[in-house]
Amino acid sequence: MRGLVSKVSRLCAGLMLIGVVSYVEGQQALALPIQEEQIAAVAPDVSSSMAVLGSPFKKAPYARNVWDMQLFNGKIYLGHGNSSNETPSPNAGPVPIYYWDLAQNKFSVQDVTYTNPSTGRVTTNVYVMDEQIDNFKVLNGELYIPGNDSRVPGWAYGNFYRLNGDHWDQYMNIPGGIHVYDMAYYKGKLYAALGAIEGPMIYVSSNRGNTWTRLDSVSQFGIMRAYNLFELGDTLYASSATAGKTQGVANEKGYMISIKQNSSGTIQTSKLTFTSTQLFPGLSFVTKPGEVNVPGVSGQPWLKLLRTTPVNDRLLYIPGVIYNDHQSIPQGLFSAGANFQNVRKEQLPNPTVVPIDILERGETVYVLGYIKEAPGKYTNYVYRKSTGSFGASGEGWSEVFHFGRDTFARSFEEQNGDFYFGLGSYADVVPASTGTILKLSAGAY
Predict the structure, then answer these.
(1) CA dist., res. 128 & res. 177, Å (int)
(2) Tens digit of pLDDT for each residue in 279-289?
(3) How far apart are CA 18 and CA 141, in angstroms?
(4) Phi (first) and psi of residue 421, to 5 degrees
(5) Pseudo-torsion of CA 126, 128, 133, 135, nearest 10°?
(6) What is the structure's pLDDT at 223?
């Protein structure tokens, strides 16, 4: 990886103070002056170096949101679609599996094959039978897609997909899994986190997903969906949602279960309760005067964990307010130690940047974020931090580069120093550039 390109402004005399100008939601603000020694290096603006690779998506603009990008075997897979029942672009499936081929420098699509277990009949399509590809998961060296919102078979079973050579195999066999939000591999078993009729359920498979067994539920209150599976220490966690802390509202409960497997293969689960204050210290919301406080509906937002990424002995994550049914709006960057002790907010150099994606690369962890300068004007940032020093404190992040665009980059990937970005949007303003894939070559920064 090439180092940062530095531009050092050297002053000849004294303790001259420099004011830093930033923008928050289109409003210009002058930060407190800082001394010249504190800004010894300025990361480059690479706006003019961004290559536009185009967009393979054929759906309406909102459904082109690049929810996730995943590098695997020389290809960058692209999540897209929309599983919300609300406009714009409601229930946008079925969704093709597009990828950017790094060797051939072009977009391609892969087939999806389903084998009926009763009849042996094989059906091949060029899409997944779900409304949205929300995330890709690399589990035990294999690539999976959790079925975010099943079109077929519907409410009875949920889907998941596994890459098999040059095509994907579809499995329609997770009981009640109309929404399969996440999957994990833990000590030889597959796990699935569901939004099901019965609530936020966790299922487990000991045979690579050929059959599934109900393990436990996360909670029976609030948002009835299990959104995440992630490891922290020697424990697998499953989480649903947390009621955000608001002024004058006592309820800020959140729910998880811990999953532990001992040396004999026995699995034990424990139900856990957290508060927003514990998980997201310093994050709170102001209710409007006279507004009725109905958790998850008005007044008190519900948050879920986004981009959960283990970094050494800590978990790095982004809280997101649940928005447009299955989507979310990010609210900051936090990390937690084992058993969710020593939770802290990570201190990015510019505190007005909204973190939206996380990428771990061996000795370095990257964070993608943005600032909305004005309508149709965004600055996107990439920060990095050494994983070796990650546990010491929430500081130590440095900017790699930034670039301007008419919307924000929702996801990113990296290969040999080249960065790739997928543009996104929210439901209120959906620019035509949503779904565009950008590339920044390593030599540009």
Answers:
(1) 15
(2) 999 998 876 66
(3) 49
(4) -130, 140
(5) -100
(6) 72
Q: What angle do CA 309, 311, 317 make, to 5 degrees?
A: 35
For tokens 């937002």, what's the residue? Answer: 301
In this prediction, residue 295 carries a pLDDT of 45
* Cα(243)–Cα(295) distance, integer angstroms: 7
Contacts of 89 (CB under 8 A, 6+ apart): 59, 60, 61, 62, 63, 82
**Whole-angstrom Cα distance, residue 146 to residue 135?**
7
Q: SS3 of 444, please?
A: helix
Distance separating alpha carbons of residues 221 and 324, to the nearest angstrom = 20
Its pTM stands at 0.89
Q: What pLDDT is stored for residue 248 in this prediction?
A: 65
DSSP class per residue in 203-263? EEESSTTSS-EEEEES-SSSS----EEEEETTEEEEEEEEEPPBTTB---EEEEEEEEE-T
- List of the chain residues with pLDDT < 70: 1-41, 220-222, 248-249, 287-299
State the SS3 of 173-198.
EEECCCEEEEEEEECCEEEEEEEECC
Mention the CATH class of domain 17-444. mainly beta
The three-class DSSP label of residue 85 is: coil
Q: What are phi and psi of 443, to 5 degrees?
A: -70, -10
**How long is the chain?**
445
Q: Residue 73 to residues 102, 362, 415, 418: CA-CA distances in angstroms? A: 9, 17, 11, 16
Compute and round to an integer the Cα radius of gyration of the chain: 22
Domain ranges of the chain: 17-444
